[in-house]
Write a structure and sequence with these properties.
- The complex is a heterotetramer, with two copies of chain A (299 residues) and two copies of chain B (261 residues).
- Chain A has 299 residues and is α/β, with parallel strands linked by helices.
- Chain A is built from twelve helices and twelve strands.
- In chain A, strands 1, 2, 3, 4, 8, 9, 10, 11 and 12 form a nine-stranded mixed β-sheet that branches.
- In chain A, helix 3 packs across helix 4 and helix 5 packs across helix 7.
- Chain B has a single domain, classed as 3-Layer(aba) Sandwich (Glutaconate Coenzyme A-transferase), CATH 3.40.1080.
- Chain B is built from nine helices and 14 strands.
- Chain B is globular.
- Classes of the chains: A alpha/beta (299), B alpha/beta (261).
- The interface between A and B is large, with 51 and 52 residues.
Chain lengths: 299, 261, 299, 261
């Protein structure tokens, strides 16, 4: 992870760490904080605790998003301080609705100059974001839509349950916009719970979300999504999400947390060790197997 | 309307809101579930008035069968055992924008008399007093879901004459112009608060008090509303939560009482 | 199948039987011929042998398509006779490229009034199809694209390997545009190799391509795609594809074939029986299992 | 150039085309495979000059590992054991239109000197003499694949001065204007026929004869071309198929000789 972030994330980049509640690669965010990257534009549908940490860690000057909260808990206090009080400095924001953000990634992934959606009608959102512009259908119905521009992050970082050494990555459970964000990224880091043999991927090609052809680095990092979750591997650590509300409310407590859990640790392996194995054991779900399908051998 | 009164009734105001909201899903085939209270409401409805209700989550889950109350709209319990999981693009494009969603729950920091909602900001956008989460999927949900049910605690600062920011559109105030919008959605259908339930007037699109919850008065409503509320000539009393509804809420859906007490 | 076609396919309808080389529901096409539907507009990316049969069977007055051939073999002679010689009568055509057709379905499925693509530049296709129109991006780059209109078939018929009784359908192998065509259809028939318990579908929700909420009829019909194939169930009957070239070249031979294999048979069960079990056994592939993934039980 | 000559050479003209085409894939990371001959060419290249070549099919397969020669671009052998299978929307949008495809093979009933291709119709569109398959994916492939290799048998009726219909764009004849198109694709790079191989001139975008196959002459080329062909000053002879290439074609890729003899 250290090399991937050092090589591929550059000061001033637009970085998207995606994953909708699921597969949010906190380990990558921590590494970016640790390497003291600066002036990043952070894109994510839901900034979540990960971007609150990164904003508190001083890496970001701008946020592109569609829902700014601690899901199921409340606010992201470090981000709010930057926006409401410019504390310790202002944070530029550019906001969309979820569908608008998703379609920005789809347009970026598809090399489309714009993407039309039926949203934003009679909403104030386009008034505060000039990138959301109205357009009229050229067909007889002359339907009004809004269009959003493509989003092409300099770096997209997505987590997957498993990938092979070439970066062919498979995901199950919530898909979010991992695929779209990966294809949209100019550089792509795939982090996974397990690096598996290519044959495992090829056994079930319909499960492949991201092909290695768009991937620049593959990092095996178990529990990298903690406190978010990886379907079938570990549960969301809801206690931490709740705790973050307390931690982030007070800048000093937050700084102490960052020092203890990010800056004073060298790697995510240290982070795993610091939590201790009992913590990880408690997050393990029971089994719920998918069953198999037969692709058939045609030789 | 204090702790004593609540104890007397045998249920909390939040439990009343949940029960009243869940009943509004009777007969619905599917429901777009939001974060927080709507999560509990939909799960209650699925166990009571709408057993075949398909739970849809903007996280990309259709037909969820959560084995526990989801901690968020992206809880892993929603994925395991669901009917279908789709990319968020497909969820928003093929399901929501295509008009397949019957009912969606929305809430907000501010609502006006026409059901327009603000979840973006209190104060000016560029110099906010309180920065709220923003739209999420709410803007497009308000446009495309066939019916919108709003659940909000009532207060003068949230039921306002004029929104600080319109995140999600409601009724325009002119039903003819609303019909001409050509949206799948018919806008907000009901608002359930801790004081009562509201509908929207067919001819003006304006929020109208339909029932008061047990123990609540018109004075309570006036005291917690930023405009002069329309009141139905048939103003009634909201049916109280049943023993079974309360049992489900307390034992199955929110055993720790985190959301409901 | 008889009831599904009788109830849901009406004279004059636009009908899409989709499946890109894979999962082409010939059984539905045969039933439409047998029920002597008339004046249909047939939409399909690749009309394939199925639409050659349907056009020869007299059900169609118009074709919407992007590639008109017998894949890997050559021409569709019945369709060519209609287009080139108006024999026995003209056939209206409306043509796109593959990407254009796919995006018409995507727009139809998404309730979008148009869909932008970067195609058709310097091609004559837009000259012969006025529904393909140029549009300029409203952003600074002012990129030129073409847009295609939504396609909303009155009836979409798609085949899947398996579905439950509610129509929740799972597909593996080539996906074509089955999902997009199904979501785009005003009425939808799902035909499948096997109707399975709902629990089988729910074991692997990421495999579900089409949810029952858009499905009007579910028909279990094994080998319904013959001579095309169903991944893991049977191979393409290439001999038949080759043979069709001979059959369709001569209108009389073709009529004889239609009589023998469609009109004189009551159902697809009769068709299966007429081919005989040895034929089906020969098309069975070996096994190539997908392996399982663990969704985890979160209770 | 008759049956005797072919026997003398020890390989067919088709086998020569296949071998010459396959070599043009040297170093390519991935290749968009078309129906028919390109299928065999790509499978040969994967076994010779481009072992890591990822085979991509417009049917939605990336990284196919066919255990047998596919009967069509949608053969089930392409799906089993592939790296990824995507919807056709994603294949065309995320892979092709996004510029991820290195090389694609195209062919057609007609080609002009700038590599424009006709796969739609012979004669007028509304009153066709021969109705051809149409574009399929060819129109967008021609625009987005980084390089286009064309394989076609050569004849006056197919190498024409003027196309009956332009299905897929080639070079415009003005390289400056081509560069300004802003496409990922650089247009046709090579044309391999049964007579020789052609490149495209950097300054005019015009097809230029680079090599003649063993036994072919400039007269053969003139006799089978609808315009006066440009000839490279360094005109050479095409390398003949190797024993190993012929073995692969005959034993593994087309054992029945259906496509190659």
């Amino acid at each position: 992870m250290r090399d991937a972030v050092a090589d591929l994330v550059r000061d001033g980049d637009t970085v998207a760490i995606e994953g909708f509640t699921h597969l949010i690669c906190f380990a990558a965010g921590h590494e970016i904080i640790r390497q003291r990257k600066r002036d990043l534009t952070l894109a994510r549908m839901t900034p979540d605790v990960i971007y609150d940490q990164m904003v508190a860690g001083g890496v970001a000057s701008k946020l592109i998003f569609s829902w700014l909260g601690n899901p199921g808990v409340g606010s992201l206090h470090a981000i709010r301080r930057r926006i409401e009080d410019h504390d310790p400095e202002p944070l530029e924001i550019e906001e969309y609705s979820h569908f608008g953000m998703v379609c920005r990634y789809v347009a970026g992934a598809s090399n489309l100059p714009f993407f039309p959606i039926r949203s934003y009608y009679e909403s104030d959102i386009p008034k505060v974001n000039p990138k959301i512009v109205p357009m009229t259908s050229p067909y007889d119905d002359a339907t009004e839509v809004y269009v959003v521009p493509p989003l092409r992050p300099d770096v997209s970082i997505v987590h997957a349950q498993r990938a092979d050494a070439s970066g062919d990555a498979q995901i199950w459970g919530l898909l979010g916009c991992q695929k779209e964000a990966a294809f949209a990224g100019a550089r792509v880091i795939v982090v996974c719970e397990e690096v598996v043999e290519e044959s495992v991927i090829r056994q079930d090609p319909n499960r492949t979300a991201i092909p290695g052809v768009v991937v620049d680095a593959v990092v095996e990092e178990p529990f990298a999504c903690h406190p978010s979750f990886a379907q079938g591997y570990y549960d969301r650590d809801n206690a931490f999400y709740l705790d973050w509300d307390r931690i982030a409310r007070d800048p000093e407590t937050l700084d102490t947390w960052l020092k203890e859990w990010v800056f004073d640790l060298g790697t995510h392996a240290d982070y795993r060790e610091k939590w201790g194995s009992a913590h990880w054991d408690a997050l393990r779900p029971g089994d719920a197997m998918s069953g198999e399908v037969d692709y058939g051998r045609y030789a | 309307m204090n702790a004593t009164a609540e104890r007397d009734l045998g249920y909390s105001r939040t439990e009343m809101m949940i029960a009243a909201s869940a009943r509004r899903l009777e007969g619905a085939k599917n429901c777009f579930v939001g974060v927080g209270l709507p999560n509990i409401v939909c799960n209650l409805a699925q166990r009571t008035v709408a057993r075949d209700l398909q739970l849809v989550y903007e996280s990309g889950v259709f037909g969820a069968r959560p084995e526990r109350l989801p901690l968020s709209i992206g809880d892993p319990t929603l994925a395991t055992g669901a009917t279908a999981i789709t990319s968020m693009f497909e969820l928003f494009a093929f399901y929501l924008q295509a008009g397949l969603i019957d009912v969606a729950f929305l809430g907000g920091a501010q609502i006006d008399r026409f059901g327009n909602l603000n979840t973006t900001v209190i104060g000016p956008y560029d110099t906010p007093k309180v920065r709220l989460p923003g739209s999420g999927g709410a803007c497009e949900i308000a446009i495309h879901a066939r019916h919108i049910l709003v659940i909000m605690r009532q207060a003068k600062r949230s039921f306002v004459d004029r929104l600080d920011f319109r995140t999600s559109p409601g009724h325009s105030g002119d039903p003819a112009s609303d019909a001409a919008r050509g949206w799948h959605g018919t806008g907000p259908t009901s608002v359930v608060t801790d004081l009562g339930t509201y509908g929207f007037d067919d001819s003006t699109g304006e929020m109208t008090l339909m029932t008061l919850h047990q123990g609540m008065t018109l004075d309570d409503v006036h005291a917690n509303m930023g405009w002069e509320p329309k009141v139905s000539p048939d103003l009634g009393q909201t049916l109280e939560p049943t023993t079974e509804e309360l049992r489900l809420i307390r034992e199955e859906l929110d055993p720790t009482g985190a959301h409901t007490r």
